[in-house]
UniProtKB/TrEMBL annotation:
Domain of life, per lineage: Bacteria
Name of the protein in its database record: Thioredoxin domain-containing protein
Record's signal peptide: 1-24
UniProt domain Thioredoxin: residue ranges: 25-166
The entry's keywords: Signal
PROSITE patterns assigned: THIOREDOXIN_2 (PS51352)
Lineage, highest ranks first: Bacteria, Pseudomonadati, Pseudomonadota, Gammaproteobacteria, Chromatiales
InterPro entries: Redoxin (IPR013740), Thioredoxin-like_sf (IPR036249), Thioredoxin_domain (IPR013766), Thioredoxin_ResA/DsbE_sf (IPR050553)
One annotated GO molecular function: oxidoreductase activity
Length: 172
């Protein structure tokens, strides 16, 4: 390999790992503003349109057993806290819409479900596991992240939700 190619190869090796880190959504950062498609509708929505509320973003897929377990919890959270300013958005990342439809036929969602057809939002949040959850405060800042879902996780997630809702009430 000649010297210019060797230098280019080295630069690519160094630059590639830095790209995902620079784009990753992290605690303390503004949440990425993703363009999403409401489930089974033609219009589009921006994640940022819910700024001013506490937003629970949950990336899920039909093939994910923990996602199946998390939906009853999310429905319960929505029922108890939506009137206090909580908005839950389930972002489906399945390649086939029919897989998501089958999942929702078995476990209906009582919160907004949207589709990330080109996986751009999942890449912006740097999703590493299913489900991946992000709690976003009323200013659009990511305050808590959570990977996976086990029944023992509900207390932690509910405590974070209540904490952010109390901040919302204190700082309308």
């Amino acid at each position: 390999m000649n010297k210019p190619r060797l230098v280019l190869f080295y630069l690519l090796l160094v630059a590639i790992p830095a790209v995902p880190t620079a784009m990753a959504a992290e605690i303390g950062q503004q949440a990425p503003n993703c363009l999403l498609k409401p489930f089974e509708k033609e219009d589009q929505v921006f994640l940022q349109q819910w700024q001013g509320k506490v937003v629970y973003v949950d990336f899920w897929a039909s093939w994910c057993p923990p996602c199946l377990k998390s939906f009853p919890f999310l429905n319960d959270l929505h029922q108890r806290f939506s009137d206090q300013g909580l908005h839950i958005v389930g972002i489906n990342v399945d390649e086939k819409l029919s897989d998501a439809q089958d999942f929702l036929a078995r476990v209906p969602a009582h919160f907004d479900v949207v589709v990330d057809p080109d996986q751009q939002c999942a890449r912006s949040f740097d999703i590493q596991a299913m489900p991946s959850s992000f709690l976003i405060d009323q200013k659009g800042v990511i305050r808590h992240t959570h990977l996976g879902f086990r029944s023992g996780d509900t207390q932690e997630l509910e405590a974070w939700t209540q904490k952010l809702l109390q901040e919302k009430t204190a700082n309308p």
